[in-house]
Design a protein that fits this description.
GO molecular function: FMN binding; oxidoreductase activity, acting on the CH-NH group of donors, NAD or NADP as acceptor
InterPro entries: Flavin_Rdtase-like_dom, Split_barrel_FMN-bd
Organism: Bradyrhizobium valentinum
Shape: globular
Protein name: Asp/Glu/hydantoin racemase
Distance between the termini: 31 Å
Helix content: 10-25%
CATH class of one domain: Mainly Beta
Largest sheet: 7 strands, antiparallel
Number of strands: 14
Strand order of the largest sheet: 3-2-6-9-10-5-4
CATH superfamily of one domain: Electron Transport, Fmn-binding Protein, Chain A
Pfam family, one: Flavin_Reduct
CATH architecture of one domain: Roll
Oligomer: single chain
């Protein structure tokens, strides 16, 4: 591959394409389907495309929101949230919770989902989801550029203190990722990908 085969750009000067390729290149991305509760008891459920796991011990997950969203505000107020696994069976419901609605509107009801109580946090999980992580807030960090200028984006990190897994997806003591058919962001706005068992393969580390 030579220089003439490459499309090169510096993000600060624009990408020069029809659509910004950043999201499409970093794919697939797990979906941060986050439920939270504000200080007045209002429940919120929303999906975030910038989400992942960051640490084994303690287990830490996090999501980033562009602009200050209800989820970040709720979590800052209460110190708790829940991550719910978005699957192919729940794709339409997950998408419904992305709607911009008033703060006091319950997205569980909007999407026709069941709010199930958790064990260690006062935030409901999506009962229909096969996996849920109960989390306690560890940090909320406003992101910044290399020049130190603050970005309008906040990374919310939480320690997983309790886990719910549908036993149907545990075989011989091993959680089977593909059996749940999780969906992930596969590119720009509106693009998703379904993870299936037949699309998975194994590679053993050299060491």
């Amino acid at each position: 591959m030579t220089e003439k085969d490459l499309h090169f750009y510096e993000p600060k000067n624009g990408h020069g394409l029809k659509h910004d390729p950043f999201n499409a290149i970093i794919a697939p991305r797990p979906i941060g389907w986050i439920s939270s509760r504000d200080g007045n008891g209002n429940i919120n459920l929303a999906p975030y495309s910038f989400f992942n796991a960051f640490c084994y011990v303690p287990p830490i997950i996090g999501f980033s929101s562009t602009n200050w969203k209800d989820s970040a505000g709720n979590i800052q107020d209460t110190g708790e949230f829940v991550w719910n696994l978005a699957t192919m069976d729940l794709a339409k419901q997950m998408n419904a919770t992305a709607a911009h609605v008033a703060r006091d509107v319950d997205e569980f009801k909007v999407a026709g989902l069941t709010a199930a109580p958790c064990k260690l946090v006062n935030v409901p999980r999506v009962a229909e989801s096969p996996v849920a992580f109960e989390c306690k807030l560890t940090q909320i960090i406003q992101l910044q550029g290399k020049d130190g200028e603050k970005a309008q984006a906040w990374l919310t990190l939480g320690e997983v203190v309790a886990v719910h897994i549908d036993k149907a997806f545990i075989k011989d003591g091993v959680y089977q990722t593909g059996l749940a058919h999780p969906i992930v962001r596969a590119g720009r706005r509106g693009d998703y990908f379904e993870i299936k068992p037949e699309n998975m393969f194994e590679m053993i580390r050299p060491d």
